[in-house]
Description:
Helices cover 34% and strands 22% of the residues of chain A. Chain A is α/β, with parallel strands linked by helices. Chain A has one domain (4-128, 199-280): Rossmann fold. Chain A is globular, with a radius of gyration of 18 Å. Chain B has two domains: 7-45; 52-282, MetI-like fold (Orthogonal Bundle), CATH 1.10.3720. Chain B has helices spanning 7-42, 48-52, 67-98, 103-117, 120-132, 142-166, 170-178, 183-211, 215-218, 238-245, 251-282. Chain B starts with 6 loop residues before the first helix and ends with a helix.
Amino acid sequence: MSTEPTERAAQAPAEAVPAVTPRTAGAKAPAEIVSPGRTVTLDGLKAFYGSSEAVRGISLTYAANEVTAMIGPSGCGKSTVVRCINRMHEEIPGAHAEGSVLLDDADVYAADVDVVAVRRQIGMVFQKPNPFPTMSIFDNVAAGLRLSGRRGDVKDRVEQSLRGAGLWEEVKDRLSQPGIGLSGGQQQRLCIARTIAVEPEVIIMDEPASALDPISTLKIEELVEQLKTRYTIIIVTHNMQQAARVADKTAFMLSGELVEFAETEKIFTNPDDSRTEDYVTGKFG
Amino acid sequence: MIAPVAARRRRTDQVMRAVLLGGTLVALVPLVFVVYYLFKQGIGAISWDFFTTDPTGRFLGPPGGVKSAIVGTIMIVGLAALIAIPLGIGVALYLVEYGKQNVFSNVVRYFVDVMTGVPSIVFGLFIYIVLVLTGIGGNFAGWKGSIALALLMLPVVTRSAEVVLGLVPNSLREAALALGAPRWKVVFRIVLPTALPGLITGSMLAVARGAGETAPLLFTAFAVNATTWNLGEQMNSLPIQIFNDVRQPQANIVERAWGSALTLVAMILILTLIARLIQRRSRFA
């Protein structure tokens, strides 16, 4: 069908991890919860680009302090869904969403809700690392704080965030150098540091490792594992091995609809829906 | 064995290279001659007195320098830049950030294009009718010349700024918005700094264009011999000085015109160099 199968094939040899190993199958102890994240609930979410309906009514719950992966072929609407959660979808000209997205009990689409406040609570990491080119490493991390209007000493927070993103040791001696001078993987961790500096409760990652090499990918995945002790994490990925490695639960989407949502292990070993099975076993992409 | 380049193709390549080189040289001829004559005719007029004395206005004896014209040009163009650059960038910001495709911005875009093509004398006449004949703040005044020049510079600034702002990657806007930045902060902290080098270049282009204009100043700032720093009075300027001097029969006055032209070119060159230095310093990597 599309380019997807070749994409996956290209990734496969680089990944030393055996094909599909649901992380729940491993002996990893559950991470200790440091601060409770928030539950995100989608209720009949529909998303449109102009008049074309990209997401056709999805309902599901992202549990707090868990990693939920969104998988599905290109164009199935998984990115659109997550962009609706922090209301970034509506930034695209002509796009709008219907239905509701609840952060615990509060509807982020309620009429009196401040979009800016929503985005401070629900952070986002993008597919391509996008550090601000005019800013130093330090300023990039501080940017989130300054842009969202916090004043005062941001130094400690920058260090904390860089440590949180596993980047501190690599950059602590060159904080004043430009952020775009870092490698791709470092840039992406810089973007993660920038996101967690604002102290959101939910972090959305839209294919955060798809532009990175395998070693950087692994670092990001380890980071995701640590971050869920503080945040609710939603990760969109093309890479099923990645979903299997990092996610507690996995949602499979097809043509704008949610086909199946369950424990990651179940999705990859014993899915209820035959389409899920066909997709995770690589019968179509 | 790999086939060598066919003789025919090699010949065609050589002919085309020669044609392109020839074209470039032809285009360079007038440029070189302008600079050459400017130096040849103008350098004789340049002396310390040339910059430090005003034109005497006498027909016989030493004609004096062009201090009043230099001061006038700096004052008039400076005020015009202060008006046109913020306004022009503001219009461009509206067009790029807020009114991407609505009818109003398309109309604005169209009129900006039309304004670019309006002959400069029309702006002079317009200000003459609106501000000089009506006697607002006296009759002829430096600031009226500034407004005429600002009108001339406005579309140049707007057009170039719109292009440059449009080149700022959308991913940076999204990154900032997703951090919970209000739109105005995204514009001032991210978009403008990223586009700064281009904005400076465009603005310098407009200043250079404005500084060389004679027609808009003829009916607005008029011309006097004495130096004034007061924009409310009639003011001399380099283009007007050249215009008046070159029509005189005395050789030494015509020489002063050449000297003025050389001075004007040098001033613009220095300004451009300063802008380049600033923008190099403000940019990373």
